[in-house]
Design brief:
The protein contains 13 helices and four strands. The longest helix has 31 residues. A hairpin with a 5-residue loop joins strand 1 and strand 2. The strands form two sheets. A two-stranded antiparallel ribbon has the order 1-2. By secondary structure, it is an all-alpha fold. This is AAT family amino acid transporter. Keywords: Membrane, Transmembrane, Transmembrane helix.
């Protein structure tokens, strides 16, 4: 995927990767869609684990960044990726080939993330010590990181649900994206101030918070999950049924909060069932954040399914397509959630215990895997892999269109 775009329905998509080679007969090598998808997931998983051991692992890494400032840097890197690649539609200098093009884009994203983390922890913290890097257990980094929870919602929904309305109608890239980024700072900071600050600020009274930090994380991340479900898996339905783009934006904004609340109770219930009563009891009130812990496993597979598995199926009826995509990604999320918490986090990633028989924090490693996937698939265009076979239905439609146009050409 060399460059992101938005379909008329608002669904984020991208162009197919540049072919990495040709077969001996001169034709471009291709992979079946499922092989292409699995190959991308394998590359991402291996790269994520190796980079984890090198940069983050609490036992093996010489860097010592776990859990902070790793988590803060990770969250800001993901939102910087959204800004650069989706809001502004840029994945590196077009004049460069891969992997140089993608590497330049990745460096830009990492530089933005590092700059924001440093500005908050060492600059703005002189005004508000709630953000200070010196706070115990990385709490200052965590305060800055929490801003991104709200940014995820607004900046992603603007692309996948709103199709960048109203900015794309008035400005061309990258100016539309820059205007979008600047405008959505306001609602991001307003929600951060109202919902999060009472829980994390050194000067605030936690008793005034509308909900605990754990519940806030679980619920609001579920609203982000709603954005991804509707924008990616469901082809922006039901919002795309509305005739006006303005109405689509307004209704999807409200609708994703409603759907997100439903998803919160569903994913929290699923997470409690999967981890078992002993772990639920040990986690206490903090268990409400596990709606987000399950949600991030689902988001990983929804992004993968839409971007490297071709968002299959596409040949069934509309309702059947959406149901199958939802069920398949949910099943994969359950397997990933169980595998991460009961096997990978402790034995492979060496993360500390959580609960009775759990290890780790999926909002850390699984979001890291999401970032690695975005870097590899979006910026690097699945470099090194042959492209997926073209969809047969799409190829047939294109052939018919070309033949029809040719038949109409004057002799």
């Amino acid at each position: 995927m060399s460059s992101p775009s938005a379909t008329p329905s608002g669904t984020a998509s991208a162009a197919p990767p540049t072919p990495s080679g040709t077969a001996p007969d001169g034709h471009t090598r291709t992979l079946p869609w499922w092989v292409f998808g699995l190959a991308n997931v394998v590359v991402v998983a291996v790269a994520a684990v190796l980079l984890w051991w090198l940069l983050i692992d609490p036992q093996w890494s010489p860097v010592g960044s776990y859990p902070q400032p790793f988590n803060a840097s990770l969250f800001w890197a993901i939102i910087a990726t959204v800004w650069v690649a989706f809001n502004c539609g840029w994945t590196g200098p077009a004049r460069l080939g891969q992997p140089a093009r993608g590497l330049v884009g990745i460096v830009v994203v990492l530089a933005i993330a590092a700059a924001v983390v440093a500005l908050l922890a060492y600059g703005w913290s002189r005004v508000d010590p709630s953000f200070a890097a010196s706070r115990a257990e990385g709490a200052g980094f965590g305060t800055g990181q929490l801003i991104v929870l709200f940014a995820f919602f607004f900046y992603v929904t603007a692309v996948v649900n709103w199709a960048q309305w109203p900015w794309a109608d008035r400005l061309s890239p990258p100016w539309a994206g820059l205007a979008e980024i600047g405008t959505l700072v306001l609602p991001t900071l307003v929600l951060f101030g109202v919902l999060a600050v009472p829980n994390v600020a050194t000067w605030a009274d936690p008793s005034t918070a509308l909900m605990s930090k754990a519940t806030l994380t679980g619920w609001f991340y579920s609203c982000i999950v709603a954005v991804v479900v509707t924008g990616l898996l469901w082809d922006n339905l039901p919002w795309a049924l509305l005739k006006s783009r303005a109405a689509t934006a307004v209704v999807s904004l409200v609708g994703n909060f409603v759907l997100g609340t439903v998803i919160y109770f569903g994913t929290l219930g699923a997470a409690k069932l999967l981890i078992g009563p002993a772990n639920v009891a040990a986690l206490g009130d903090g268990v409400t954040s596990y709606a987000a812990e399950f949600g991030v496993c689902w988001v990983f597979w929804m992004i993968a399914w839409a971007n490297v598995f071709g968002n299959k199926p596409t040949h069934l009826g509309r309702a059947a397509n959406l149901v199958v995509r939802t069920v398949v990604t949910l099943v994969l999320a359950v397997v990933t959630f169980l595998g991460y918490y009961f096997v990978v986090a402790g034995s492979v990633l060496h993360e500390p215990a959580a609960g009775v028989s759990l290890h780790g924090d999926a909002l850390g490693f699984m979001n890291f895997a999401v970032l690695v996937m975005l870097f590899y698939v979006l910026f690097l265009g699945s470099f090194g892999l042959p492209p997926a076979e073209p969809d047969a239905a799409a190829a047939d439609a294109e052939t018919i269109a070309v033949e029809t146009a040719g038949a109409r050409e004057p002799a």
